[in-house]
Amino acid sequence: MRTWTVCFLWVWAAQSVDAMAFLKGTVGLEKARVTQEGRDVETPRRFKRGWMWKQFFLQEEYTGTDNQYIGKLHSDLDRGDGTVMYVLTGEGAGTIFVIDANSGDLHATRSLDREEKPYYSLRAQAVNKKNGIPLEPETEFIVKLHDINDNEPKFEKEVYTANVPERSHVGTSVIQVTAHDADDEMFGLSAKLVYSISQGHPYFSVESNTGIIRTALGPSDMDREQREHYQVVIEAKDMGGQRGGLTGSTTVNITLTDVNDNPPQFSQSIYQFSIPELAKAGEVVGRVRAVDADIGRNAEMVFTLTSGDGLDVFDVTTDRNTQEGILTVKKPLDYEKKKSYTLQIQVRNTHPDPRFVSVDSKDSATVRVNVEDVDEPPRFERSSYILEVKEDAAVGTAIGSVSAVDPDARDIDSRNGVISRYTIDRHTDVDRIFNVHAGNGSIFLQKPLDRENLAWHNISVIAAEFNDPQQTSRVPVYIRVLDVNDNAPTLAYLYDTFVCENYKSGQKIQTITAVDRDEPKDGHRFFFSLAPESPRANFSVRDNGDNTASIFTRRTGFRRSQKSTYLVSVVISDRDIPMQSSTSTLTIRVCTCTRDGTMELCNAEALSGSAGLSTGALVAILLCVLILLLIVVLFAALKRQKKKEPLIISKEDVRDNVVSYNDEGGGEEDTQAFDIGALRHPEAMEESNKLRRDILPSEPLYPPPPLRRATAASARDNADVRDFINQRVQEHDGSPTAPPYDSLATYAYEGNGSVAESLSSLGSASSEGAQDYNYLSEWGPRFRKLADMYGGEESDWDC
C-alpha cells in the first residue's frame, strides 16, 4: 500500500510541473496591416510571446483505455474567441501524439515503451484559424518517457559451462556470469542488479556484485572420484535486490577435472597362469590388471618385474590401450628342467603428481606361472653345425655327424628317447651331394666336390621321433669345402706383345702375371721360366719374384720381312703341394717402331687377328647387306608381276574345261599363253632347242624322235600331228621342271598338209569350203568336242 501511495504522489507531481511549464516575457514578431500611399501592406512588428516550454513527461507502459493526457499548449494571443488554432508536427505527430486544435490539449494515443524509444521531439505553433497565418514562431519541445521497472535481468547465456580442478582450495575462481537490465540505469534502482546462488550450495558461492562463482568447500570435499559434475543456478535481481525487484536466472554446468591423486592398485594379490613348454619367445603368458581411479594421462601406469626365479625367462610390458600388464615368454621353457616360476610384479603411475600422491607410491602382486608338459620334437645338441671337408675327398668319406635327443625322455631305457632316423632335406641338397646315416646321424659324401665351383654347402638335417614320426625338428649344417691344389696357374691375360725392329738385346718388351683358381692359406707364389722346347736365341723370361715375370730380347736385328711372329712358351708353376704347372704360349709380333718405341706398323696377319673391324667398315658392310636385300625384294616383286597365269588352274579333268573353247578368242594375237610360231614351224623349234615358255629350260631326258614329214594321203593318218603330240608327251613325262598341269596350247598344231589346215580365224579365211572334221573324233575325247563344233551344218551357225 505504501508503494502505491508513493507512485501516485510521484505521478501527480509530474503532472503539476507539466501544467506550470509556461514561461512568459519572451518578445516575438507580429505582422500588422497598414495603409501606405493608398495601398494596404503588411509590415512586421514586434510582439510579446505569451507561452514557451521545453519538455513534457509521460509515463511508459500506460494501461488505460483512454488517450493519455500529456499537457496543454496555450498562447496569450488566444482570447478564447476561436480564432487561434494549434498545429503539432514532429516525431509521431498525428499518430502517437495528437493535439486539440482549439484548446491545445496534448494526448498520447497508445502505450509507449521507453526501452524502444526514450523520448520524442515535437514542434508546436499557433496559427490563425481562418487563413492559417502563423501567429507566433514554431516552438520545439520534447516528450520524455518516465521509466518503470518493467524488464527483468537477462544473462548473456542461458547455460554456462565451466571446469575447475578437483581438490581446489576454497575460493578458487570458477567462472564469471554477467546479466543486463534494459531499464534506465540513471533513474532509480530499476537496473541495479544483485547476484545470488539458488542451487549449488554448499559447494559453490557467487559474489553478489560481480557474478564471479567460486568454490566454497575444501580440497577433501571437492573429489572428482566422488562427484564429477555439478549444476549451479545463479539469479540476478534488480531494484538492488529489494523486494518487488524482477529476477533472471541462468544455469552453470561445472565439471571437476581430474588430477593424479590416486595411485594404481592391483585388482588381486596373486595371479596364476599356465603356458606350454613349447611356447616361443614373445608369446603371451597372461595379463594382469591394476585399477586407477584417475582418468586419461593420470591413469597411465607401468608394470615391472622386481623379483622371482624367472626374471630372465619372462618379461612384462604395458598395453597402452587397456593399461594392462602383458606377461610374455623371454626364453624357451623346459618342463623337464623347471615346472613352475614365481614372480613379483609391481605397478606405479607413469606421471605421478607430488602435490597429491608420493612419487614412490606403488603396488605389488605375486605371479605364479606353471609350465605344461608337451610331447616335444627331437632336440639337436647344437643350434647349427659347421663341418669341413677337403675337395679331393673320396665318395663315401664321412664329414661329421649330428646328434639329437628326445627331451621328453624320463630315463635312458625309455623308447621315447630314441630317434627313429635322420634325413636330409633334399630341397637344400638338390644335387644329392651328401647323405646322412639314418641311425647315428653321420654325414658322408655321395658325389665329388669342387671348391672352385662351390665353396660352401648349406643343408638341413631332419630328425624324427621313433614313436611319433610327425614329431620332427631340423638343424642347419654348413659344410665348408677346403681347398686342395688341383689347378695349375695360367696367364692372367691374353697379352698383345710386340718387339720393335730396332730393339736391342736385353730390352724388356712385356711384363706378365698369372692367376690360379686355388686359394692357398699362405697366398699364391708363382714361378715363371722359359719352356725347354722354346728357342732361347730370341727371347728370355726373367722371374721378378713378385708373381710377375718380364720378357727380354736376347738379340738385335729383328726383321718383319724375315719373320713377323714369334711364339714363346712360358712355364708357370706354384709352390703348393702337389705342385701344379702349365705352359702358356705368348705371341710376339715384329713391328716397325719409332725411335722412342712407339709402334707404327705390324704384320697384316697379326693385326687382322688382334684388331677388330673399325666402325666405318661395319657400317659399310651393313649398307651392302641392306642394298642386297632391297635388290632381292625388288627382283622377287617384278618376277611375281610378270608371272603368267596357267591355262588351266583347276584341278579338275581337262575335258571339263574344253567347253570354254566355244569362244573364238583372240586369234593369232592371243599369244600370252604360248608362242604360236612354234606350231607353224616345228622344224625351227627343234633346231633352236626351244621348249615351252611356261617352264624353265632344261635338256629333255628323252631325245626327241626325228620328225617325219607326212604325205597328204589321208587326214585320218596324219603322222605329223601324232608324232608332235607324242614328242610333247615324252618331254612332259621326262622333264622334272614341267608344271603339274597340261598345256593345251601345244595341241592346237594340225601339222603340214592337214585337210582341216589351221584352226586360226585368219588362216581359215581363204578356205571357206565344206570340210570333213569327223576324223577328229577318233583322236580321243579332247578332240571330239572340236569335231562337233566345226563339223556341224552351216545352218547350225546361223543366228
From TrEMBL:
<keyword id="KW-0732">Signal</keyword>
<dbReference type="GO" id="GO:0007156">
    <property type="term" value="P:homophilic cell adhesion via plasma membrane adhesion molecules"/>
</dbReference>
<dbReference type="GO" id="GO:0016339">
    <property type="term" value="P:calcium-dependent cell-cell adhesion via plasma membrane cell adhesion molecules"/>
</dbReference>
<dbReference type="GO" id="GO:0016342">
    <property type="term" value="C:catenin complex"/>
</dbReference>
<feature type="domain" description="Cadherin">
    <location>
        <begin position="491"/>
        <end position="607"/>
    </location>
</feature>
<keyword id="KW-1003">Cell membrane</keyword>
<dbReference type="Pfam" id="PF00028">
    <property type="entry name" value="Cadherin"/>
</dbReference>
<keyword id="KW-0106">Calcium</keyword>
<dbReference type="InterPro" id="IPR039808">
    <property type="entry name" value="Cadherin"/>
</dbReference>
<dbReference type="InterPro" id="IPR002126">
    <property type="entry name" value="Cadherin-like_dom"/>
</dbReference>
<feature type="domain" description="Cadherin">
    <location>
        <begin position="267"/>
        <end position="380"/>
    </location>
</feature>
<dbReference type="GO" id="GO:0016477">
    <property type="term" value="P:cell migration"/>
</dbReference>
<dbReference type="GO" id="GO:0099560">
    <property type="term" value="P:synaptic membrane adhesion"/>
</dbReference>
<dbReference type="InterPro" id="IPR027397">
    <property type="entry name" value="Catenin-bd_sf"/>
</dbReference>
<feature type="domain" description="Cadherin">
    <location>
        <begin position="75"/>
        <end position="155"/>
    </location>
</feature>
<dbReference type="GO" id="GO:0044331">
    <property type="term" value="P:cell-cell adhesion mediated by cadherin"/>
</dbReference>
<dbReference type="GO" id="GO:0034332">
    <property type="term" value="P:adherens junction organization"/>
</dbReference>
<dbReference type="Pfam" id="PF01049">
    <property type="entry name" value="CADH_Y-type_LIR"/>
</dbReference>
<keyword id="KW-0965">Cell junction</keyword>
<keyword id="KW-0130">Cell adhesion</keyword>
<keyword id="KW-0472">Membrane</keyword>
<dbReference type="GO" id="GO:0045296">
    <property type="term" value="F:cadherin binding"/>
</dbReference>
<keyword id="KW-0479">Metal-binding</keyword>
<dbReference type="GO" id="GO:0002009">
    <property type="term" value="P:morphogenesis of an epithelium"/>
</dbReference>
<dbReference type="GO" id="GO:0007043">
    <property type="term" value="P:cell-cell junction assembly"/>
</dbReference>
<dbReference type="InterPro" id="IPR015919">
    <property type="entry name" value="Cadherin-like_sf"/>
</dbReference>
<dbReference type="GO" id="GO:0005509">
    <property type="term" value="F:calcium ion binding"/>
</dbReference>
<feature type="domain" description="Cadherin">
    <location>
        <begin position="381"/>
        <end position="491"/>
    </location>
</feature>
<dbReference type="GO" id="GO:0000902">
    <property type="term" value="P:cell morphogenesis"/>
</dbReference>
<keyword id="KW-0677">Repeat</keyword>
<comment type="function">
    <text>Cadherins are calcium-dependent cell adhesion proteins.</text>
</comment>
<dbReference type="InterPro" id="IPR000233">
    <property type="entry name" value="Cadherin_Y-type_LIR"/>
</dbReference>
<feature type="transmembrane region" description="Helical">
    <location>
        <begin position="617"/>
        <end position="638"/>
    </location>
</feature>
<feature type="signal peptide">
    <location>
        <begin position="1"/>
        <end position="19"/>
    </location>
</feature>
<keyword id="KW-0325">Glycoprotein</keyword>
<keyword id="KW-0812">Transmembrane</keyword>
<dbReference type="GO" id="GO:0008013">
    <property type="term" value="F:beta-catenin binding"/>
</dbReference>
<dbReference type="InterPro" id="IPR020894">
    <property type="entry name" value="Cadherin_CS"/>
</dbReference>
<feature type="region of interest" description="Disordered">
    <location>
        <begin position="696"/>
        <end position="716"/>
    </location>
</feature>
<protein>
    <submittedName>
        <fullName>Cadherin 6</fullName>
    </submittedName>
</protein>
<keyword id="KW-1133">Transmembrane helix</keyword>
<feature type="domain" description="Cadherin">
    <location>
        <begin position="156"/>
        <end position="266"/>
    </location>
</feature>
